[in-house]
From TrEMBL:
Family matches, as InterPro entries: CB, DNA_brk_join_enz, Integrase-like_cat_sf, Integrase_catalytic, Integrase_recombinase_N, Phage_Integrase-like_Recomb
Swiss-Prot/TrEMBL keywords: DNA integration, DNA recombination, DNA-binding
Protein name per Swiss-Prot or TrEMBL: Integrase
Stretches assigned to the Tyr recombinase domain: 114-204
Domain of life: Bacteria
Lineage of the species this protein comes from: Bacteria, Pseudomonadati, Pseudomonadota, Alphaproteobacteria, Acetobacterales
Record-annotated Core-binding (CB) domain positions: 1-88
UniProt organism field: Roseicella frigidaeris
Length: 204
C-alpha cells in the first residue's frame, strides 16, 4: 500500500485555474453551450455522449449540415473533442469518418465567410467631421483616427490607455498589450506615421 499523500486541493485548484485560462472566457462559454447541445442530441437518441462513438459524432454533424455554418460545426467538433480530452478519453475529432463527414459538408454546403466592408477614407472624413470641438468630440476623433490608422479591432481600441501611446519624431508608437492573436499577452508595438492631411492624421 502506498503511503503517498494526495496533493492538496488548493494546488490542484490552482492548476485547474491555469488550465481554464488557456482559452478565452468567450471560447469556454461557446464550448460549454456546444457540449450541452451535443449531449442533449445524444440523450434524445439514447446514444452515449461521453465517450461518443465516431459514427455518433458524424451523424450529429450531418444533422446540422443545412442549418449551421461549417465554421460552427468545426467549433462544435472542437468542443466535443475537448470534453473527451478533459475526461481522459481519446478525442474522436481526428477519426477519418468524422473528417470525411465534415469535409463533405463543407464541400456541399460551405459558403465563403462574410466580411464587413472596410471603412474608406471618405467615410472616415465624414465621421470625423461630426465630432465636436469639446473634450468628448476630441476623444471620439482620436479614437476614430487611431483605430483607422492602426486597423484595430474594437476590443483593442477600447483597451488603449494613455501609457500605451508614445510620441516619436516620425509619428506615434502604439503598444497593444493583448490582441486576439496574442493570447499570451506578449504585446505588439505598432508605428503610426503622420498623415498628409490634418483632418485624418492620427498623430496631430
Amino acid at each position: 500500500m502506498s503511503d503517498l499523500a494526495p496533493l492538496p486541493a488548493t494546488e490542484l485548484a490552482r492548476a485547474a485555474g491555469y488550465a481554464r485560462a488557456a482559452l478565452a472566457p468567450a471560447t469556454l462559454a461557446a464550448y460549454a453551450a456546444d457540449w450541452a447541445d451535443f449531449s442533449a442530441w445524444c440523450a434524445a437518441r439514447r446514444a452515449a455522449a461521453l465517450p461518443a462513438a465516431p459514427t455518433t459524432v458524424a451523424a450529429y454533424l450531418a444533422a446540422l449540415a443545412t442549418s449551421h455554418a461549417t465554421a460552427t460545426l468545426r467549433r462544435r467538433l472542437a468542443a466535443i473533442g475537448r470534453a473527451h480530452a478533459m475526461a481522459g478519453h481519446r478525442s474522436p475529432a481526428a477519426h477519418p469518418a468524422i473528417r470525411d463527414t465534415l469535409a463533405g459538408i463543407a464541400r456541399r454546403h460551405g459558403t465563403p465567410p462574410r466580411r464587413a466592408a472596410a471603412l474608406g477614407t471618405a467615410e472616415l472624413r465624414r465621421l470625423v467631421a461630426t465630432c465636436s470641438d469639446g473634450l468628448r468630440g476630441q476623444r471620439d476623433r482620436a479614437l476614430l483616427l487611431l483605430g483607422f490608422a492602426a486597423a484595430l479591432r474594437r476590443s483593442e481600441l477600447v483597451a488603449v490607455a494613455r501609457e500605451h501611446l508614445t510620441l516619436a519624431p516620425e509619428g506615434l508608437r502604439l503598444l497593444i498589450p493583448r490582441g486576439k492573436g496574442d493570447q499570451e499577452g506578449r504585446g505588439v508595438e505598432l508605428g503610426l506615421p503622420r498623415g498628409r492631411r490634418a483632418e485624418t492624421c492620427p498623430v496631430r
